[in-house]
Automatic annotation (TrEMBL):
It comes from the Bacteria. It comes from Streptomyces beihaiensis. This is Succinate dehydrogenase iron-sulfur subunit. Pfam families: Fer2_3 (PF13085), Fer4_10 (PF13237). Its EC number is 1.3.5.1. InterPro entries: 2Fe-2S_ferredoxin-like_sf, 2Fe-2S_ferredoxin-type, 4Fe4S_Fe-S-bd, 4Fe4S_Fe_S_CS, Beta-grasp_dom_sf, Helical_ferredxn, SDH/FRD_Iron-Sulfur, Succ_DH/fum_Rdtase_Fe-S. Keywords: 2Fe-2S, 3Fe-4S, 4Fe-4S, Iron, Iron-sulfur, Metal-binding, Oxidoreductase, Tricarboxylic acid cycle.
Length: 255
């Protein structure tokens, strides 16, 4: 096989690093209660590489076009869970969504997640969401004396709640749930996922207490198994399955 010349290698390298910019319209639902009572849609056009993420586009808009655009983000790598938003009508993390994957030939709509009060633009009041999380006691509860060595757990027992340890509390699941939209009192999928994480932990001793909390009229029985939550979860957690397991544990009292 012929060895590529330096010129060809340089051309190849240049091609792989050259970005191919396209014009994309971002249609963002804006809301500023100090300016207007009702939200409005605003279009921004950008020349952008479709391999960039929606979060990069929001940064570009904020830094180059309109500094008042308000949204949350921190890690930019799918870990902190702060930039869940509705992109083209579906809950996603802006930092994990490539522009090329959300039909950039048409305007890309970006709006706040549903079911929580919008404070400004894409920022919602997360307090009811975190209150439901706190209500299920998302921490290990044990009785008796402090252990003198680590609490033993078999690999099989650890496996039982492995999936639900992956939650980053982004709220994408809870705010994609029609039951939560209609009645914000429902604990919501994320709180149940985090209860599951401890109910099925063999070291924990407050499973009964958590189950009783979720036996409430606003607890697991409100779930209508629509699977929106599983589809929305950016961590690939089988949210609906976790909710089903908690329902089963409530009936059988075995977990
Ligand atoms: S279960 Fe998934 S979608 Fe729900 S809060 Fe946790 S990471 Fe986000
Ligand atoms: S910015 Fe942290 S998850 Fe997207």
């Amino acid at each position: 096989m012929a060895t590529p010349t330096m010129d060809k290698l340089e051309a190849l390298e240049k091609d792989s690093t050259t970005s191919h910019l396209i014009t994309v319209t971002f249609r963002i639902r804006r809301y500023n209660p100090e300016v207007a009572e009702e939200p409005t849609w605003q279009d921004f056009q950008l020349e952008i590489d479709p391999k960039e993420r929606v979060l990069d586009a929001l940064h570009k808009i904020k830094w180059e076009l309109d500094g008042s655009l308000t949204f949350r983000r921190s890690c930019a790598h799918g870990i902190c869970g702060s930039d869940a938003m509705r992109i083209n009508g579906k809950n996603r993390l802006a930092c994990k969504t490539l522009i090329k994957d959300v039909s950039p030939e048409k305007p890309i709509t970006v709006e706040a997640i549903k079911g929580l009060t919008v404070l400004k633009d894409l920022v919602v009041d997360m307090e009811p969401f975190f209150q439901a999380y706190r209500d299920v006691m998302p921490f290990l509860v044990t009785k008796g004396n402090e252990p003198t060595r680590e609490r033993y757990q078999s690999a099989e027992d650890r496996e039982r709640f492995d999936d639900t340890t992956k939650c980053i509390l982004c709220a994408a699941c809870t705010t994609s749930c029609p039951v939560f939209w209609n009645d914000g009192q429902y604990f919501g999928p994320a709180a149940i996922v985090n209860a599951h994480r401890f109910i099925f932990d063999s070291r924990d001793e407050a499973g009964e207490q958590r189950l009783e909390i979720l036996n409430d009229r606003d607890g697991v029985w409100r779930c209508r198994t629509t699977f929106n939550c599983t589809d929305a979860c950016p961590r690939g957690i089988e949210v609906t399955k976790a909710i089903q397991e908690v329902k089963r544990a409530l009936i059988t009292r075995r977990y």
